[in-house]
Amino acid sequence: LVAEVERKEKRRADLEIESLLCRINPHFLMNSLYTIHWLAVERGEEELDRLVLALNRLLCYNIGKAGMATTLGEELESLDEYLVLQRSRYDFEYSIDVPPDEGLLRARMPRFVLQPLVENALVHGAAGSGRIAVRVAPLGPPGGGLEIAIEDDGPGMSAERLLELMEEGRAGGGARAGAGMGIGLRYVKRVLESFYGGRACLELESAVGKGTRARMRLPGPERRVAV
Asked: How far is Cα 95 from Cα 76, in angstroms, rounded to an integer?
């Protein structure tokens, strides 16, 4: 019994250290990026400075915040930072279309679910003079939920490949999922399931030569009726 207690205490201490490292490492990385930022400013490297600041803001949002919940506005701001960075590498255009509704931008949603889908659209679709469009629309009355569509004009895929991809996203996908779109879809599906408890929906539509569209339907908060 004493030995078991000692093992549990050792494990608890190890977990505490791991937790502290998880908090320290992002902080160290962000401080290092700020150092590069000031060096770029001093040397007049405006493009490098812009990219470093975009990366720092993106990391601060993705790994520097606690908790899963965010707002649509914050998620879109982070997505824009990500796309700014990617345009320094790939040749593509993008647009983010949101109705002019402050209430919509304050809608609660899980954090870091748009970037994996946009990355799929970029790497497998729009990279190389392509285009990505992100469109947001309300579902039903105010507070009733969101529909977010991510479209690319890339080569698209066959119905067979689309089905295979969705199966990878559902079941874990084996070896292929870790290297392709499946792992991103699987992550997003699990986050939506955890956050909404089965009330959200993620769909893929594609055709060869006609691009691909990922569409999320996110419900509003559950309404409880007093009895």
From this structure: 11
Specify the DSSP class assigned to residue 226: P
Copy the structure tokens of residue 101: 């509704």
Instruction: Enumerate long-range contacts of 156-161, CB under 8 Å, 24 or more apart.
Output: 156/125, 156/206, 156/207, 156/208, 156/209, 156/210, 156/211, 156/212, 157/206, 157/207, 157/208, 157/212, 158/208, 159/207
- The whole-model pTM stands at 0.73
Q: Do residues 30 and 64 make contact, with C-beta atoms less than 8 angstroms apart? A: yes
**CA-based nearest residue to 132, from 143, 120, 140:** 120
Copy the structure tokens of residue 138. Answer: 């309300």
Cross-strand pairs, 69: 110
**Which has more pLDDT, 33 or 146?**
146
Number of H helices, E strands in the chain: 8, 7
CA distance 204 to 71: 23
Give all strands (DSSP E) within the chain, no chain letters: 69-71, 92-97, 108-110, 130-138, 145-152, 201-206, 212-219
Q: In Å, how far from its chain's centre is CA 199? A: 19
Q: Fill in the DSSP letter of residue 91.
A: -
* CB distance 98 to 105 below 8 Å: yes
Quick: pLDDT tens for 55-67: 888 877 877 666 6
Question: Buried b vs exposed e over 144-181: b needs ≥16 C-beta within 10 Å?
Answer: ebbebbbbbbbebbeeeebebbbebbeeebeeebeebb
